[in-house]
Design a protein that fits this description.
146 residues, 6 helices
């Protein structure tokens, strides 16, 4: 089914009722929090792969700081070429298991938020796109009728 899907979704199936992204009554963690946690984890894993602490030092000049720029990674001596090869393209071409697992966790959090109780990592992209289209068409129709 691929990882890292984005978009709007809803309903428990084809043309299903829209589910709001509100916490489930009685749950300890809201859908928002579950999605944010999974997304932050994915981002942290990617950032650590892109800029391993043993290879970089984070620097900023006074001018950059004054202009509001964040610190930037600077390769430590001996790691310049290693760091040049650490790109998101290379990461996604390699697609290590930890990256797949992080995307699956994010996909599952989003599917849960939309109430897709039948979602699995094997749910086809075609089925997911069908559900998203159905939700967006329903929202559009409500907007025109209102």
């Amino acid at each position: 089914a691929g990882g890292g899907r984005r978009g709007e979704g809803g309903g428990g199936g084809r043309g299903g009722e829209e589910k709001r992204l509100d916490p489930v009554e009685g749950s300890e963690e809201s859908a928002y929090h579950a999605i944010a946690t999974a997304a932050q984890n994915l981002n942290s894993l990617r950032e650590n792969w892109l800029n391993p602490p043993e290879w970089v030092e984070w620097v900023i000049t006074r001018e950059e700081e004054k202009a509001g720029f964040p610190k930037r990674p600077l390769a430590k001596p001996g790691h310049e070429e290693d760091l040049k090869r650490r790109t998101l393209t290379n990461l996604y071409n390699e697609r290590p298991q930890w990256l797949n697992m992080a995307h699956r966790a994010l996909d599952a959090a989003v599917a849960t938020a939309y109430g897709w109780e039948d979602y699995t990592p094997d749910t086809s992209d075609e089925e997911i796109l069908h559900r998203l289209l159905a939700l967006n068409l329903a929202r559009s129709a409500r907007g025109l009728a209102g």
